[in-house]
Every structure is written in structure tokens, then in C-alpha cells.
Design goal:
globular, Alpha-Beta Plaits, Uridine Diphospho-n-acetylenolpyruvylglucosamine Reductase, domain 2, 18 strands, seven-stranded antiparallel sheet, binds flavin-adenine dinucleotide, single chain, Uridine Diphospho-n-acetylenolpyruvylglucosamine Reductase, domain 3
Length: 469
């Protein structure tokens, strides 16, 4: 039976693109952080949408589960198979064409396997901006970005991936090709099927193409690092920057002192914006459609105002794009610095922006009471209400031993998130990692609607089973 199925796959995609040897499959089976390695019947590497559709039909005929995979940078174990070796991995990496760019409609149509950076570059070549930006942009694919509804650093101004997508092409769980590649900004013709597939983590169908929104390329995007005292000061500063800069405010990232010190320790070559230590820092980005000078002027006058009102203790303003890049690098290296420091318990959460300061002080206190001396590496996209709220062991304590408390730490953090009306997954999704947490925190009504959608679109249950639901 397995041989018949694999023979069909080989007839569709070609022998070279149906991998079954352990060494060939290995790179497709382990998650980005190396926490989990699954097993697969085969790794399928189709060349185009017709091959994807034919392979999905084969999976449906033989009832073989399939795991769509893009750049495998997802952080919740969504794109790797489980350990049963019963599923195939369907890699979209060969579907990597920029199909077309319409500068007047301000849209770009791409294959789902395009690397995010390639899309940014194709847009820039036509003096346009595709604003989705995240540290994994050199490896992640737009299909993965859409399937996880990725956020990143520009959500404050441009929205998350859902808001950047106008149309999709999807291979359904039955192997039919749905051409929803519409470049329309208005289309009220019934249920929004596109939005069902966005954020579905490959559990409803395979995204094979997308029409994405483009924006005018700003003339300059400059940044400042602002030293502040508490998260509440950060919220006041955000309010002020929004009032002063309007749509020119394109980034607003919070970093705790510990996050900053970890970067300084593990990446000593990166810029050190301040000689003195402060309790918190905010990275502010301002973009101008006019000029570099205009961006500097906006940034400097708003920050001068903040210093005058005692919202900020100190600030370093980048006056060139290269300096701004250096400040961003500090922010982008926090996760890697944390990894270098040892394992910790991670949370990707969101909260109503107005409640973030209260959430941090109350949750910090709960954790300190339960795990005295534990270290909180709190940073994230404050302008979107999104925190990476990571808990590390007390200084000198064993990281592995502390990880045994993961369940108890998660309970404190996620119960607190729920009490503040937040979300336990802001931008990374659910995958296998947070499935039990989803069940704990979503209402039965919400879960039942999700299950109904899943069984309507994927009645055989072959699309990425065990993920999300
Ligand atoms: C260093 C680093 C920084 C990151 N920063 C951010 C960040 O700032 N914001 C953020 O939101 N995320 C971030 N991430 C997480 C990750 O990069 C994103 O989730 C990304 O969107 C995943 O894309 P991918 O192509 O790697 O998808 P994969 O990891 O391959 O897949 C992710 C999920 O999508 C499904 N999938 C993939 N392609 C398709 C398809 N074509 N059709 C249907 N389903 C599909 C998979 O089955 C899986 O469930 C970061 C990750 C790393 C490693």
C-alpha cells in the first residue's frame, strides 16, 4: 500500500523529489530550535500548483496525512511531522516564483514558497515596499507567514500578514485548486474564505500562491533607542510618539535591561547605545516619505518632548540608516543572546496595550513569589501589545532543572494573560506546542466552531493533523 502511494507520488513529482532515505529527509524533520524531531513516510517536493494538487489527491486517496512546510522557522512545532512516521512532509520550497508585480494596483503575486526577503527585494526593485519584516526573513516563506499570520516589527504601521494579503490560491484537502488570487481592496461577496486559510497553520488546505499589498517605499526609516524607567513610561511614550508622528511611527519595541545586557554579553561587537544602565529601553522607528532629514527632525523633536515631560531618561538618535540598522540589530539579537545564555521558558503573548504595565508588574510579582530570583527577559512589539515574556532560572541555577517547572510557570503566566483579557499566542501560532493551552483558554463555543470548520474543509482529517486542534 505504502509502495503504491509512493509510486504515485514519484509519478507526479519525479523520483528525485520524493525523498525517503533517512539522511535526505533529516533536514525536514527537526524544528528550528532543535527541540523536536519527527518521522515521515516521505518528503514531497512538488514543482508547481498542479503537482501540489495531484499529491494532495494521492494523500486523500490513500488517507495519508500531510504536513505543509515552508522555511521551517515556525516556533510552535507546526511544520514538522509527529513521531509516527505515518505522514508526508509537503515542502513548498520549489514553488518560489515571483509571478507578477502591478505597481499601479500596488500588488505583487507570488508563489507560496517564495522566501520573504526575495519578496521584499522584488518590491524594492520597483520602488515599492512589502512591509512584513521579521528576524527570520532570510529563511521563512510567505506561505508560512500567511499560515501563521506572522507579525514582526512593522505591524504597528502596516498590520500583520493577514492585513497584507488580498488574495490566495489554495489547494483544498480534496486536491482541488481554488483560485482566489484577487487583487481587490473591496470584495464583500459572502464568507471570507481567504481569512480562513490565513493563520490556519496548514490544517485546512495548502496555500500555493498569494496576492500581497505593496506600499510606497519610504525615503528613510530612522530609529532611536530611548532609556526609560518602567513599562508605564513606555506606554506614555508610545502615546506621545503616536500623537507626534502619526503614521510615520513604524516601530516601537520594548526591551528590559536584562535583555539588553544579554545582547551586550553574547554579541559584544554590536552597538552599546548607553554607557549607564537603565531599567527599560524602547526602540522607536520613524519613517518619512520625504527625506532622511525629515525623519530625524520628527524623531528628535518628539524625543525632546518626551525628555522634557520626564517620560524618558536618555536617548540615542540614529542620524543615518546605517546607525538605525545597528540599533535594530541589538533588538534582533535578543532571542539569540537568550539562547546562548541557556534554556528558558518562553511566552508569546498579547494584551490590550493599556493593560501591559499592570500585567508585567502583577505577573512579575506572582513569578517572584513562586520562584524567588527567577529572571524575566521581557521584550517585544509593545506598539502591538505583543510581549515575549520569557522566564529564566535564578542566576547560577541549572537551566535544565528550572525547565522542569515549565507547566507551573506557564500556568502563572497564561492565567494572568487570561485575567488581563490577552492571548496566549500573539504571533507564533499554536502548532503542537500550544494545543493543550488553546483548549484550556478558548471557550467551548469557540472551539466547536473551529472544529466544525476543520471537519467541513478537511473531512478526512489529513491536513496537518495534531496541530492547532
Ligand atoms: C529568528 C526568528 C525570528 C522570528 N520572528 C518572528 C516575528 O517577529 N514574528 C512572527 O510572527 N514570527 C516570527 N518567527 C516565527 C516564524 O518565522 C514565522 O512563524 C514564519 O512566518 C514561519 O514561516 P515558515 O515558512 O518558516 O513556515 P514553517 O515553519 O515551515 O511553517 C509554519 C506553519 O505554517 C504551515 N505552512 C507553511 N507553509 C504552508 C503553506 N504553503 N500552506 C499551508 N500551510 C503552510 C506549516 O504546516 C506550519 O504549521 C520567528 C522565527 C525565528 C526563527
Amino acid at each position: 500500500m505504502t509502495m503504491d502511494f509512493l509510486a504515485r507520488c514519484r509519478a507526479i513529482a519525479g523520483t528525485d523529489h520524493v525523498l525517503t532515505a533517512a539522511t535526505d529527509m533529516a533536514p525536514f524533520l527537526t524544528d528550528w530550535r532543535g527541540r523536536f524531531t519527527g518521522s515521515a513516510l516521505a518528503v514531497l517536493r512538488p514543482a508547481d500548483v498542479q503537482q501540489v494538487a495531484a499529491l494532495v489527491r494521492a494523500c486523500a486517496d490513500w488517507r495519508v496525512p500531510l504536513v505543509p512546510q515552508g522555511g521551517r522557522t515556525g516556533l510552535v512545532l507546526g511544520s514538522v511531522p509527529d513521531a509516527s512516521a505515518s505522514a508526508v512532509v509537503l515542502s513548498l520550497s520549489r514553488l518560489n516564483r515571483i509571478r507578477s508585480l502591478d505597481a499601479v494596483n500596488r500588488t505583487i503575486t507570488v508563489d507560496a514558497g517564495c522566501i520573504l526577503q526575495a519578496i521584499q527585494d522584488a518590491a524594492a526593485a520597483e520602488d515599492c515596499l512589502f512591509p512584513l519584516s521579521l528576524a527570520a526573513e532570510g529563511s521563512c516563506t510567505i506561505g508560512g507567514n500567511l499560515s501563521t499570520n506572522a507579525g514582526g516589527t512593522a505591524v504597528l504601521r502596516y498590520g500583520n500578514t493577514r492585513e497584507l494579503c488580498l488574495g490566495l490560491e489554495v489547494v483544498t484537502a480534496q486536491g482541488a485548486i481554488w483560485d482566489g488570487l484577487r487583487g481587490l481592496r473591496k470584495d464583500n461577496t459572502g464568507y471570507d474564505l481567504r481569512d480562513l486559510f490565513i493563520g490556519a497553520e496548514g490544517t485546512l488546505g495548502v496555500i500555493t500562491g498569494a496576492v500581497l499589498k505593496l506600499f510606497p517605499q519610504p525615503r528613510a526609516a530612522l530609529a532611536a533607542m530611548v532609556a526609560i524607567d518602567t513599562p508605564r513610561h513606555a506606554l506614555d511614550l508610545l502615546h506621545l510618539m503616536q500623537a507626534r508622528c502619526g503614521a510615520s511611527l513604524t516601530g516601537f519595541e520594548l526591551m528590559s535591561d536584562l535583555a539588553m545586557r544579554l545582547v551586550a554579553t553574547h554579541f559584544p561587537a554590536l552597538p552599546k547605545p548607553f554607557t549607564a544602565r537603565h531599567r527599560q529601553y524602547v526602540l522607536v522607528e520613524v519613517s518619512s516619505s520625504q527625506s532622511c532629514e525629515h525623519a530625524v527632525e520628527l524623531l528628535e523633536s518628539a524625543i525632546a518632548d518626551a525628555l522634557e515631560r520626564d517620560l524618558a531618561d536618555d536617548a540615542v538618535v540614529a542620524t543615518s540608516v546605517a546607525q538605525a540598522r545597528g540599533l535594530w540589530q541589538v533588538r534582533e539579537h535578543i532571542s539569540m543572546a537568550q539562547a546562548a545564555a541557556g534554556k528558558n521558558i518562553k511566552h508569546d503573548i498579547s494584551l490590550p496595550i493599556s493593560r501591559i504595565a499592570d500585567f508585567i508588574s502583577s505577573t512579575d510579582a506572582l513569578l517572584e513569589a513562586a520562584f524567588p530570583g527567577c529572571q524575566l527577559v521581557c521584550f517585544g512589539h509593545l506598539g502591538d501589545g505583543n510581549l515575549h515574556y520569557n522566564v529564566a532560572p535564578p542566576e547560577g541555577a541549572s537551566h535544565d532543572a528550572f525547565l522542569l517547572h515549565q507547566e507551573a510557570v506557564n500556568r502563572i503566566v497564561h492565567d494572568s494573560v487570561a485575567a488581563f483579557n490577552g492571548s496566549i499566542s500573539a504571533e507564533h501560532g499554536i502548532g503542537m506546542l500550544k494545543r493543550d493551552e488553546l483548549i484550556r483558554y478558548k471557550s467551548e463555543i469557540e472551539l466547536n466552531m473551529m472544529r466544525a470548520i476543520k471537519s467541513a474543509l478537511d473531512p478526512l482529517g489529513i491536513m496537518n493533523p495534531g496541530k492547532v486542534l
